[in-house]
Amino acid sequence: DAQITTEIQIPTDLHLAGDSTALRQVVMNLSLNAADAMNEAGHGGKITIQGQALAEGGIELNFTDDGPGMTQEVARLAFDPLYSTKESDKGSGLGLYVVQRIIDGAGGMIKLDTAPGKGAKFRIVLPDAMAQLGSEEIHPLDVTDHWQGELQ
Question: With left for phi above 0 and alpha for psi between -120 and 50, is residue 42 left, alpha or beta?
């Protein structure tokens, strides 16, 4: 497999109340999908995770990769349950579906911007509190626990 690096650009003072397990699931699913797509395309790449506070409240998270990207047809189906471009033994087709359910359940939104040869960008906007998911507070917003270094 080719080398895939991650870059995390999240201010240390960015806070979000909510379910840290659900947020880590979002990070893991998006990161693993990007890594799988780059590996299947036979080249390495970079996954960038950026976060920022929004002036109107809440936070924005962007997951960007420089992988092979998706056709508009694949992008349209990407969040459907059990839809996958992977071989049946390599993916369940639930990763992006679960991501969307978590984000929707938190009162947020997720948008996919992609094109063949252009990688993919998932933009997530979450409200100030993810109280619907739980009461645990994440101080600071920490997605780096499992994503230091390189994905292979």
Answer: left
Handedness of CA 128, 134, 136, 139 (dihedral sign): negative
Burial of 48 (0-12, 13-18, 19+ CB in 10 A): middle
The whole-number pLDDT of residue 127 equals 86
The residue to which tokens 């499992």 are assigned: 146
Q: What is the pLDDT of residues 26-61, one digit of tens each?
A: 999 999 999 988 988 888 899 999 999 888 888 999
Judge contact between 4 and 150, C-beta under 8 A: yes
| 53, two tokens | 């506070």
Fold of 12-140: Heat Shock Protein 90 (3.30.565)
CB-based contact 38:68 (threshold 8 Å):
yes
Instruction: Tell me the pTM.
Output: 0.80
